[in-house]
Sequence to fold (444 residues):
Amino acid sequence: MRRLIFTVLLATINMLTAAEPRKIFDYPYQQHDFPNGLRLFTVPTDYPNIVALYIVVNVGSRNEVEAGKSGFAHFFEHVMFRGTKKNPPQKWEATMKAAGAATNAFTSDDLTAYHATISKQGLASILELEADRFQNLDYSEALFRTEALAVNGEYNKNSAAPTSQLTEKLRETAFDAHTYKHTTMGFLADIKAMPDQYAYSRQFFDRFYRPEYTSILVVGDIKPDEVKALVEKHWGGWQRGKYVAAIPAEPPQQGERKAQVDWPVATLPWLTVAYKVPAYSDSDKETAALDLISALAFGPTSPTYQRLVVQEQKVDVLGGGASQRVDPYLFTVFSRVKAEKDVDGIRESIVSTLNGFKDTLVEAKKLDAVKSNLRYRFALSMDNSEAIASALARAVSLRRSPETLNRIYAMYEQITPEDLRNVARKYFVENGRTVVTLSGPKTK
Fold:
C-alpha cells in the first residue's frame, strides 16, 4: 500500500511540474523600485569579473509626437556622449577606459539604450559617471548644431542603402497618424531643420530623461545589495518628471496601399509586403502566434524559402515577420529579387503563403518543432552577461520586467494550429496590406 501511495504521489508531482510553464529566463534576479520611479534590476551570473550595464530609457521615435520634431530620440544617442561640466568628454572617456569599458548606445522606436561591458572593479565609478550625464547633460548651442549636422550626415550615409529607403517608404505609406510613420532617424525635412531646434532639444531631454522612464540593468559578477546602495547614492536624488506623450492612434486601414522607390542606379529589385498587426502582448495569443507564423512561413526550412531561394533561385534574400512594438505595428516580409520580371510573381507567392495559413492547419509536429527551435536558439544565445543584459533590455522596453521573456515563451507553448489559423484570418487581409517595391532605372 505504501508503495502504491508513493507511486500515485510521484505521478501527481510530475503532472503538476509538467503543467507549470518552463521558464526561459531562469536566472535569479532582484527588482527594486526607487521612490522617484527609477527601476533597478540586478542579475548575478557565474561569468567572473565582468559586468554588463544597460540603462534603458523608454523613449524612442514613437514618442516624437510634434510635427516637425522627429529624430530627437536618436539625436540624444549622439549628444549624451558629450558629457557634463563635471565630466567633460575627455574625462568621461578616461574613466571608461580605466574601467576597461566597451560602451555604445542604440535607439529604436520604443527605447534608447546605453550599455557598457566593464570589469566589476569599475562598476562603482561607472554608475557615478552615468548618473551625472543622465541628470546633468551639458551641451552648448554650437555643439548642438555640430551634432545635428552629424545626424544629417548619418542619414545621408544610411540612405545609400536600398533597404533604408525601402523601410522609410514602407512606414510613410503604411501609417497615417501614428508616430511609427517615421523611422528612428526621423523625416529628412526635420533632420535638415534640426540645427535650429536647440531650445526644443533641451525641452525633449527634460521631458524624457527622467527616472520614471528609466530602468538600470546590472548583470554579471555582482552583489545586488552593493549595486542597490550605489544606485541609491548616485541616482536616488534624480527628480521625477510630469510629461506623458499623447501618442496618436492609427485609424483602420481601408484598402491595400502601394508605393515605389525609384533607385537612381542599377540594383537588384526589392519587394516588401506588410500587414497591420496588433501591439506586443504576452497576455493573449496573437503576438506569439504571429511570431510562430514568421518562422513557419519564411524560415530557411520553410517550403516557400526552399522553393524561391534554393530551388528556383529567383530570390537571394527572403525573411521577416512581426516586430514586437509597444503599439500596433507591421508584419513585414522583405525579399530581394534577382530579375525585375519576377517581382509580381514573388509578391503573389508571399501573399499566397500567408493566405495558406487561413485554410490549412499546420501539422502539430511541425509547430512543436518550431517552438523547440525558438527556445533552443534563445537559450544558446544567453551565454555571457552582456547577451543576458541585451535580451533583458528588449524585454524591459516592452513591459519593464524580465518576466516579459518568460511570459512570451510560455505563450508560445500554448499556441495551437487553430490559433495560427485564427490570427491569419484576422490580420492577413487586403485592407491591412501595404506593398512597396524598389528598383533601378529600366534597361532598354
In short: Residues 1-19 have pLDDT under 50 and may be disordered. The domain at 257-439 is CATH 3.30.830.10 (Cytochrome Bc1 Complex; Chain A, domain 1). The CA atoms of residues 47 and 220 lie 6 Å apart. The first helix runs from residue 2 to 19.
